[in-house]
Known about the structure:
4 copies of one chain form a homotetramer.
Chain A: H1 3-16, E1 26-31, E2 36-39, E3 55-58, H2 76-85, E4 91-94, H3 98-106, H4 115-118, H5 133-137, H6 140-154, E5 164-167, E6 171-176, H7 179-202, H8 211-221, H9 231-234
Amino acid sequence: xxxxxxxxxxNRDLVTNxxxxxxxxxxxxxxxxxxxxxxxxxxxxxERLTETELVAVRLGDGSLVNTDGLRPSSDTPTHLVxxxxxxxxxxxxxxxxxxxxxxxxxxxxxxxxxxxxxxxFRGDIPCTRQLTLDEVNGAYEENTGHxxxxxxxxxxxxxxxxxxxxxxxxxxxxxxxTVEDAxxxxxxxxxxxxxxxxxxCLSQQFHRIPxxxxxxxxxxxxxxxxxxxxxxxxxxx
Amino acid sequence: xxxxxxxxxxNRDLVTNxxxxxxxxxxxxxxxxxxxxxxxxxxxxxERLTETELVAVRLGDGSLVNTDGLRPSSDTPTHLVxxxxxxxxxxxxxxxxxxxxxxxxxxxxxxxxxxxxxxxFRGDIPCTRQLTLDEVNGAYEENTGHxxxxxxxxxxxxxxxxxxxxxxxxxxxxxxxTVEDAxxxxxxxxxxxxxxxxxxCLSQQFHRIPxxxxxxxxxxxxxxxxxxxxxxxxxxx
Amino acid sequence: xxxxxxxxxxNRDLVTNxxxxxxxxxxxxxxxxxxxxxxxxxxxxxERLTETELVAVRLGDGSLVNTDGLRPSSDTPTHLVxxxxxxxxxxxxxxxxxxxxxxxxxxxxxxxxxxxxxxxFRGDIPCTRQLTLDEVNGAYEENTGHxxxxxxxxxxxxxxxxxxxxxxxxxxxxxxxTVEDAxxxxxxxxxxxxxxxxxxCLSQQFHRIPxxxxxxxxxxxxxxxxxxxxxxxxxxx
Amino acid sequence: xxxxxxxxxxNRDLVTNxxxxxxxxxxxxxxxxxxxxxxxxxxxxxERLTETELVAVRLGDGSLVNTDGLRPSSDTPTHLVxxxxxxxxxxxxxxxxxxxxxxxxxxxxxxxxxxxxxxxFRGDIPCTRQLTLDEVNGAYEENTGHxxxxxxxxxxxxxxxxxxxxxxxxxxxxxxxTVEDAxxxxxxxxxxxxxxxxxxCLSQQFHRIPxxxxxxxxxxxxxxxxxxxxxxxxxxx
Lengths: 237, 237, 237, 237
């Protein structure tokens, strides 16, 4: 699948997976060879979106490749900062998915409380700090990107090991090696947020799993020594 | 789309969007040139409603335009008060949508806790005061309208900047320049109420966003300086 | 629609309305002229139920009209007690619907906290007392019926004004003049239970509406002076 | 239905019943005559799973019957321990179903709070103890099985009377005489977990039902003296 088809499918999958409605959220893909980012146009409802309406911008300066096309998503500067900071990622998704956003709104990390979490995220999913007045009144969307990177740097997190972040008072961003992974991580994140919220209804105390269980599950499913799944040699279909 | 078609579509969209069932709720539209309001008939189930059954009443005194038609919604006097008080609105929606109604029942404003809220509502969505014995036993539905207007006046709120209200112990009303906007605001309100309720399950403390973030998002998407969306010049489809 | 068709439709509507699954719950209808009650057979899954499988029992002693047919629902004795005690009711529904059952499980009345409740139920929906060891080990299902009637008598409730009850640690029963009404009341009850539970997530304090508002809504929609709906004279379709 | 068809249907029913998505969870069946266990392959998404991809392993040592087929589920050693320890069971299901997993995450038994629970499970559904560092770093999946059996032995529970267990910080396992029963128990467990969680939103105090009511319901529906359902003699279809 080429970049345009993959990016279009990712945007549509946000709706199919119940993560987006109306014009909320966006998915983007980066072409590292061409230094081009493809992203959803701003304010276009998903059900009307067509593949050719995706907007191409230059990774370096965010300028439009085609100056008489649609405007890119207003969140484009956030995507660009992440692509520039983390060369290992290939796709980014932003949503206002219901449960993950609830965490953003109360400014809480999503604590790793079970093996479902550990199968995908090697630790708590961080919530960013509050942006300052100057950051909001200035290059707001770009500063959101810097704030995410700052959080990951400060906590020394590998963004491929914890491929999502909760933006304080806003909502989640997720990413991956591919945009398909980014969508999957957004979907799993929402599910984890639901389960953790249910856990809170049962007990206000957090129950973080021990590191040895976190790593056992994460490494069983991810990385070179993964035993989960069929591996390349054994795969039959 | 003419008034009748728009009003019929709005009533049906309440069901499609999961905001209404049975005979609960109603949508209306005002024709400012003719001083006529079209509204759902009383007690008719949505699935049986036909476009010609919508009831026309005079904006001035609420009298029936067609005296041998159906009765208008029992909430008609509330709609009329809002249309008379706020000439800038063109459509109104009332529902008993599940989450917004929960706020009405516990007599709480819906606090602006995130940017999803700020994208549509420039501040907290107010819950009205309790109606008095005399107001309930008198012209109850009309008094409900006065109570909404009183709340907006007292708090000095522009009804187009916060196009919804929670009626204490009852449920939400929303409105907009068009009835289509009114339905959209009712839908977003329900979604916001869900997310805020989830936030409450995580933390009983409210997390109101700072005004500078509220305004940044509200003004990015609304008003003359909005940068969100395609604008009229750039719109391609 | 005859009794059999109405009773079959009621049982199927429990599934359609999301109130029942598997073999849980049952709907019955009484033929007052013949002193016969028709009820769902025991342990038959809804999706396999056929109209002719409904079981007829005598109102007086619960004996089978057709001795080589299926066994009636194990809850039949509860239905019979209610039909005998309350001649004004014509249909009964029992479910384990998710939210109403949660109230039964924590032994709480469903407090009238809003006008949605008041439109259908003229006051709190009672939860019964705990059955004793002897009542459970004896004629358990019949004693459940007596316990419901005892609760309504003790609180001096007209069963047509509050047409539902929460059985402690079990689930809801509802009823009405017709079995169609009984299903509608079961559906509204579940919706009210959802909204009240959401209200509890926002505030642990109950917010019972004042009697004047309760009566205003109840009497607007029910009884001889009802102004809601089209009335018989005005009804066009 | 043969073993392969039954096991395939069970795996698909997990998705149909809303208990599984992506590659999460698995169902297995044991052939006691042949000492063979059939189980879902590891990491294969349900929507792509075909009947012939199910993996056969030997009950005794877990070795592959067909060495050039797919790898079995990574949870296979857990299934094998349960089959070996409890000869009376014929099928096992593991899921990360949303509400039951929330209980696992906060390390709580699922208390029997109502008759819906008592109709299927003769007492609280236990949550296992935390696995130790050595157990996790060693034969983790096999140790999970031992931990379940240890819990049932310690509490002196008959696994057919309480056919499910919550694995601490992980999720539920359920089982039954047949794999069809195991799926049904997983489905009912999830429903019970939802209702119990709703009960917690209403009251943080548990409301365990008395033993005489628990047994009345359990024995009405299960065991030789069951009066619920049609029995073999009376069954018409």
